[in-house]
Amino acid sequence: MRVEALELHRLAIPLVRPFETSFARQTGRDVLLVKVRTDVGEGWGECVAMADPYYSSEYVSGAADVIRSYLSPALFTSDDVSAEAAAGIFSPVVGHRMAKAAVETALLDAQLRAAGTSFGEYFGAVTDRVDCGVSVGISPTIDELLAEVSGYVAQGYKRIKLKIKPGWDLEPVAAVRELLGPEGLLQVDANTAYTIADIDHLRVLDQYGLLLIEQPFVEEDIRSHIALARAIETPVCLDESIVTTEVAIDAIERGATSVINIKAGRVGGYLEAVSIHDACLERTVPVWCGGMLETGIGRAANVALAALPGFTLPGDTSASDRYFAEDLTEPFVLEGGQLAVPAGPGSGVTVREELVADWASAPMEMLRR
Ligand code: OSB
Ligand code: MG
Q1: CB 304 within 8 A of CB 125
Q2: Are 128 and 193 in the same domain?
Q3: Exposed, middle or buried, 140 (CB in 10 Å: 0-12/13-18/19+)?
Q4: How far apart (Å, rounded) are the C-alpha atoms in residues 122 and 210?
Q5: Do residues 162 and 286 both lie within one domain?
Q6: What is the best residue among 23, 293, 295 to mutate for testing ligand 1's pocket, by most ligand atoms within 8 Å of CB?
């Protein structure tokens, strides 16, 4: 396929409720979309980078610049590119995986739409619906947290994930465990807010029967995660630390993680995400699909990924209305705690281009060969 042009669309979309983590409080999403125009048709990709470099070193303006200055010129040097070739074409650029993932996904969408193949079929999906959980932000009070969680339970979400940080951990976890009862699936995510000095404190969580504790320590600190995994019963799950298949295998073999949160954006794209899934399946390490508050464009691909056989835990693949009043595609609607895997070619969803234009926070940028 020959890429004729890349369009960069920057949008501002309000969230239905603020989302607070240990690192930031977000009231909206700063969305970067990539549309590729090729000789076989068009494709879309959503960049998961956040407005500021607080979750990872990437951020939206940086990702846009990497695409503009490095990734699109690299694509234009060839007359025959494919999603499978993208990682090689982009390999001179170190890191910037979220930027690379957005472009690779747009290429894959164009290529699979032309071939009449869905993301699910291409990735190796074994089911047409996936179990969904919901990630619940830090709340001003325990009462407000319980009201929010009760709403999600009533909607049918199969698992609750609580964002935690020092000062917001044991009390909210105890309260939500009581609300859910002993059988309710519950897990926590610290987004690197703790240090090795907190191991004794984190051990107290063992009494709440959590599915896992996600990323308590900084990205590069594999050693402290190994120490924690040895000290507590709650399984340790890595998110931020897992940036490639090699890192995933290393973390598993060293005992730093016994569950992995797979986010395609964080690892450079869906092809690498499938490779991490395969490595985990081979080692019987369960995985689940993470999220970055994606619109329907990114969500469609996540739901297809979550349909692979190793995704045995409910993902952060929530319905459109958990995030936005209106979505950029047809909405993803929860049915029996599940979302349907889109079946049409490529991502299987239709981008509402009039909304993309209406919600633009900057003029569209056209990058041509
Ligand atoms: O750590 O999993 C995370 C959102 C933004 C950045 C990081 C994370 C998250 C979430 C929300 O937990 C997942 C979602 O609902 O998309
Ligand atoms: Mg996380």
Answers
A1: yes
A2: yes
A3: exposed
A4: 33
A5: yes
A6: 293
Torsion of CA 337, 338, 339, 340, to 10 degrees: -140
Q: What is the CATH number of the domain that holds 333?
A: 3.20.20.120
Ligand nearest to the CA of 238: 2
Do 112 and 129 lie in one domain? The reply is no
Catalytic status, residue 100: no
Q: What is the pLDDT of residues 221-272, one digit of tens each?
A: 999 999 999 999 999 999 999 999 999 999 999 999 999 999 999 999 999 9
Contacts with 114 (C-beta within 8 Å, 6 or more apart), sequence order:
1, 40, 41, 345
Does 87 share its domain with 154?
Answer: no
60 & 159 share domain: no
Which residue lies with its CA nearest to atom 14 of ligand 1?
A: 291
**Does residue 155 share a domain with residue 228?**
yes
Contact 261, 214 (CB under 8 A): yes
Give 136-193 pLDDT, tens digit per residue. Answer: 999 999 999 999 999 999 999 999 999 999 999 999 999 999 999 999 999 999 999 9
Say whether 165 is catalytic: no
Q: Which residues, chain by chain, have CB under 5 Å from ion ligand 2?
A: 189, 214, 239
**Please, which pLDDT band fits residue 345 given cuts at 50, 70 and 90?**
very high
Average pLDDT over residues 71-81: 97
Cβ–Cβ < 8 Å for 45, 33: yes
Determine which one of 35, 100, 163, 165 is catalytic: 163
Residue 316 beta carbon below 6 angstroms from any ligand 1 atom: yes
Which residue has the least CA distance to atom 6 on ligand 1? 292
pLDDT score at 187: 98
Q: Is residue 322 part of a domain?
A: yes
Domain match, 314 and 298 both: yes
Task: Please give the residue range of the domain that contains residue 231.
Answer: 120-340
Question: What pTM was computed for the model?
Answer: 0.98
289 bridge partner residues? 262
DSSP 231-250: H-SSPEEESTT--SHHHHHH
Mean pLDDT of the chain: 98
Structural domain includes residue 243: yes
